[in-house]
Design brief:
alpha+beta, Alpha-D-Glucose-1,6-Bisphosphate, Chain A, domain 4, 2 domains, 7-stranded antiparallel β-sheet, 9 helices, 52% helix, elongated
């Protein structure tokens, strides 16, 4: 029971770190784009003198922010990007301090900007500590017995399904069932008890393929897998099945590690297109819940009729006659 509690706490901590990394990454990208596109406006907003020198400096800082944001989104478990943001925050505070000493005209704006930077710095330090702690935990014990590669991303998603663990496990273990709720999957061809061949839709509707091998199989408890050979997208992970508290069925926990194609740019584009694996796992688990609880996936009119008029959204351009 104590081991399970530590495992749950560790996953909760990992989920918080992932959310913080995502927020800081997009914040950094947004701020960087604003500083590059409108440096004078940003300077005036924070009470810094608006001149050519400041414009150049602001754009340089914007490039740094943009690089940090992309780095965090692409490598959320790499502490270097977190501490690079902390170093940048110190530079920003130095710039704001100079502005405070130079003039009292915009002191209020500069003080407010300094307070905001201090708040972000605290979040950056917290994120850096979380990454360091997670690295320590992974070094001490990796249940899968594998070593993460540079650029890998890790996703954890949990859902409760009102069905017993043996039923949920049995459905998942029949791998040809997976395309029924994993919308991005085109097919899963079972080769033998451990090996299978997967075809899936990647970003820009490109088809990606890989062979997978089941590395652990504990009936009604856990399935672990790993891509092998020259996979288009390397991935590995585990799915756990355990009784949900209060007799509410089964808690399904998916831990996925993957190497995103296209690096940082690929991750960012995939997220915008809702094809990033973290988003896919969340959506897939919701569909699995629907399949097992009600026997089918419930879709909206907008999903059933993409790009065309449907009962919930009629064609407003159509001519109405009485």
């Amino acid at each position: 029971m104590e081991v399970a509690s530590r495992s749950t706490a560790s996953r909760a901590e990992a989920g918080k770190a992932d959310r913080l990394a995502n927020a800081l990454g997009w914040f950094s990208i947004g701020l960087g784009l604003a500083q590059i596109a409108a440096p004078r406006s940003v300077a005036r907003l924070i009470g810094v003198k608006d001149d050519d020198k400041t414009t150049t400096l602001m754009r340089t800082i914007g490039v740094r922010e943009l690089a940090s944001g992309i780095g965090i989104l692409n490598q959320p478990r790499a502490p270097g990007w977190a501490w690079s943001r902390v170093a940048g925050d110190v530079m920003d505070l130095a710039l704001l301090g100079s502005a405070l000493n130079a003039s009292d005209e915009n002191r209020g704006r500069t003080v407010a900007a300094s307070a905001a930077v201090l708040g972000v710095t605290a979040l950056d330090v917290l994120y850096g500590q979380q990454v360091k702690r997670r690295q320590s935990e992974e070094a001490m014990a990796d249940e899968r017995g594998t070593t993460a590669k540079d650029g890998d991303r890790e996703v954890t998603r949990v859902i409760t399904i009102n069905r017993p663990p043996d039923e949920v496990y049995g459905f998942w273990r029949r791998l040809d069932n997976l395309p029924r709720f994993m919308r991005h999957l085109e097919s899963v061809e079972v080769i033998d008890q451990q090996r299978s061949h997967w075809r899936a839709k990647g970003p820009a509707d490109k088809t990606v393929e890989w062979d997978a091998v089941i590395t652990q199989d504990r009936p009604n408890e856990l399935i672990a897998w790993q891509a092998e050979g020259n996979a288009d997208v390397y991935n590995e992970g585990t799915v756990r099945f355990r009784p949900a508290p209060g007799g509410r069925g089964t808690e399904v926990v998916v831990d996925l590690r993957y190497d995103p194609p296209g690096g940082a740019a690929g991750v960012a584009v995939a997220k915008l297109l809702h094809r990033e694996p973290g988003q896919q796992v969340y959506d897939d688990l919701r569909r699995l819940k629907q399949v097992l609880e009600i026997g089918e996936v419930v879709v909206s009119d907008a999903t059933a009729y993409p790009g065309t008029p449907h009962p919930a959204q009629p064609d407003v351009r159509a001519e109405v006659t009485v």
